[in-house]
Amino acid sequence: MAAELPLDKREDEPRRADFDLIRDLAALLDETGLSEIEIGDGPERIRVARTLTGTALTAPAQPEIANADASDAPEPVNIDSNHPGAVVSPLVGVVFHAPEPGVEPFARVGDSVSEGQTLFIVEAMKTMNPIKAPRGGRISRILVENGAPVEYGEVLLVLE
Known about the structure:
With about 160 residues, the chain is mainly β. The chain folds into two domains: about 1-50, no CATH class; about 65-160, CATH 2.40.50.100. Helices cover about 10% and strands about 30% of the residues. The protein is built from two helices and eleven strands. The chain has helices at about 20-30, 65; strands at about 1-5, 35-40, 45-50, 85-90, 95, 110-115, 120-125, 125-130, 135-140, 150, 155-160. Strands 4-11-9-6 form a four-stranded antiparallel β-sheet, with no helix packed on it. A hairpin with a 2-residue loop joins strand 7 (about 120-125) and strand 8. The chain is elongated, with a radius of gyration of 19 Å. Residues about 55-75 have low confidence and may be disordered.
């Protein structure tokens, strides 16, 4: 477990870490299955993270994706979140390309999308969160597979 330790704000005592809060956040990680959590007030922040071992977070595969050719799988590409067209996941969860199994995906490579159009759904803690286009453009790459776990800040697709 890695933790960035903020310091108490007392002027009359040496600054020290809030270990009770860190323990509470670590327990919340275990309870929710998250890999990291960060809270803060102004410049002082606490971030608690852990490396997950064992079984990865999975979701039921959609039949048309599970039986797809390897040629349908996204190409491995190294695009970071600083890329000007990168659309990143705002949360940890499982990404879905369509609203339900057997339905057309929200978007495909080559599609033109407008600002605010739904591109994916990320399921987190049994809540479906739409991921919307931050601006209009054409989808040049989709970097995540349907039903794959995603991390906060992971690049999902690239808009031109």
